[in-house]
Model the fold of this input.
Amino acid sequence: MEGTEHLFLGDLDSKSWPEFEEFFNKYNGVQNSCWCLYYHKGLNALKVEKDKNANSNHDLKQKLVAEGKSRSVLVYSEGSVIASCQYGTFEELPRIENATRYANLRLENGSEKKWRITCFFVDTHHRHNGIAKLALDGVLERIARLGGGLVEAYPVKGKGTVEVWFGSINMFVEKGFKVIADFGRSNVLVRKYIDPILALR
Done:
C-alpha cells in the first residue's frame, strides 16, 4: 500500500497504554467516550453513556488492558498512534450475542476458536490511505499466531460516518471474508476461517 512504508504495528498492552490513551484523548475517548468498551459489555454490564461514564469507561478499559482482556492492533507513525483496530474472542466481546438480529446467525458450539473484529478508528489526518487495511492485516496475523479459528466482523455496505467504526465491506472481501447476511440497515456480517500459524520447532 502506497504511503504506509513509514508505519509500523504494535499491540495494545500496559506498556503501550499511554500512547493509546493519548490518541483516544484527542477524540474525547472516541464516540461518546466509549473507549471501545461497547462490545465488551453484556446485558448485565454498565451501560455506555455520554459524558457521565467517561471516567469509568477510561478506567475500565485500562483495567481490561492490564488484565490482557482487551486487544487491539495499533498503527504508529513517527512514534505516535494514528489508528487502532479492536479484536477479541467471542467471550471477550459478547455484546452482539444479545442483538435480536443475531439470533439466527449464531455459530454452533464447536472446538474451533471464535473471534470478532469490532472497532476501527483512524486519525482524521490519516484516513483514505490504507491505514485500516494495514491494521486489519495485523489483526488477522495475530489471530493466526494465537491459534486461528473463525473470525467475524460487521463492515458497512456503503460509505459514510459508520464506516469509520466498522470498516468497509470491500476491505474484508479483499481479504477473503464471505458475506453471510445483512446485519441491520447499514452493516453486513462477514466471516472467514483463519488457519493457525504453527510455531517452528
Notes: Residues 16 and 103 are 36 Å apart (CA to CA). The first helix runs from residue 17 to 25. The longest strand covers residues 80-89.
